[in-house]
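Assemble and predict.
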Amino acid sequence: MSLLVIGSVAFDAIETPFGKTDKIIGGAATYISLSASYYKKPLNLVAVVGGDFPKSDIMLLQQHGVDTLGLQIKENEKSFFWAGKYHNDMNSRDTLVTELNVLGTFDPVIPEAYQDCKYLMLGNLAPKVQSTVINRLRKRPKLIVMDTMNFWMDIAYDDLMETLSMVDVLTINDEEARQLSKEYSLVKAAKKILAMGPKYLIIKKGEHGALLFNQEKVFFAPALPLEEVFDPTGAGDTFAGGFIGYIANHDDISFETMKNAIIYGSAMASFCVEKFGTERLINLSENQIARRVQDFIDLVQFEIKL
Amino acid sequence: MSLLVIGSVAFDAIETPFGKTDKIIGGAATYISLSASYYKKPLNLVAVVGGDFPKSDIMLLQQHGVDTLGLQIKENEKSFFWAGKYHNDMNSRDTLVTELNVLGTFDPVIPEAYQDCKYLMLGNLAPKVQSTVINRLRKRPKLIVMDTMNFWMDIAYDDLMETLSMVDVLTINDEEARQLSKEYSLVKAAKKILAMGPKYLIIKKGEHGALLFNQEKVFFAPALPLEEVFDPTGAGDTFAGGFIGYIANHDDISFETMKNAIIYGSAMASFCVEKFGTERLINLSENQIARRVQDFIDLVQFEIKL
């Protein structure tokens, strides 16, 4: 029942109204892995970093049960680097720097030991790289979850469509769902996107929660109302990590299990935004997670007898 | 256990991407009353219209169990008139015309028969008019719910603060909560607003649902994801009407009952936006409402055993 995570492992430099960081560990696969590690260990990682990536950060992942056999280290190159600055509302941000570096030529090699992959999480990457991973797995995983972003809709639409046709679950945000479907209504957008291939669609609405669609049903999970969002970086990836980790742990892909997985993913995301970068995801206890999930239950559950 | 509704009864002219209307019946108290009428009959109305207001529209209210003894008709004056045009996203609108007419000098006279008021719903009006109603009731109602808008924060702040200190529940939208509290975080905004007087605060987030706060607890109700929002006019008032109607019907003001009332209010609002103006609120069946509430249950309920 192995879980395989693909995506960027990188440096981020983040500025929010609350402060700024130097280069810290970031990247979609980092957040996904740390979050999923609370539900499923070990998990396998395929990613690439440069020689500048600290051994201590790789050890951090290993300490969370991440197998790094599939983490390529290109000694003479530099790691992917992103710098961004959030506006006061924390809902919009400017990208200040994007240095692809090792990611520009990333060839996702799957170690033989990872071929037993049952659950595959494709973090945001070029869709061509994502489909290459699927094609290099000799046996199709039980569930393939894919994250993407508007950037690929703009510059790699055909690749994106091809990869979309190969996956089971797509996670994107509301604006991206609208762009991809050319529909403003998220219900209409979901219908169109489900016709592109995925059997399930998760639309992430940030502070407004998340929607899960399949052809027949829809489920909504709120975001936890927070006093302060300190740093939203990685929240979507952390959500995806909790989602796939919960599903892999329960080894069940029913709609009911996906609903619970979305609650757990939302709980993990609510931790992520409380501190800079991955800081809040490092030392969570089972008790803390259970209490946070209880907060979600208290937030939305009601008793109406019809 | 009488329910008293105060607010505007008026003409609206609405333009959306789907079409436009001539002058049709509108106004906060109209939507509130029609919506509440599905839960609590009869209900009492204090409002004012001009001689131009059609008898057929007054009969429409009466047919829904609205007592119109408190509806003043100023034969030689004109009814309040609002015209607005919604943008393509349906989330923003331009006001094209606002003619206060009879509303400019509205003196809310409470008929003696309405003095037994147990539940009072103050629809959006000048805060001074709202507080006048409270002061003219000899016995304080069991629950006073007040709606307001940013306009009064701008031009009648002191009056608004005074009225706020007299009510139990305030309903406002997210932008108004931020303006009133000068806090971006809705959790922080809620704390500040609850310190202004109300024991409960409902923050309406339109397509993103609604939050109910008291000092200790928070509850979230989603909006139903809809294929099409045809006309959002009156959705907030319809929500408030379902909320107060449900509470008056159950004669209980516990947090648990308020949670259910918010789901029923949300269900009523989801009907309201499906057609122009009040059209969808005219002939709903108990079955239709029950099915819609079931949609809300299906949308958010999940089973996690901690």
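The CA atoms of residues 212 and 218 of chain A lie 6 Å apart.
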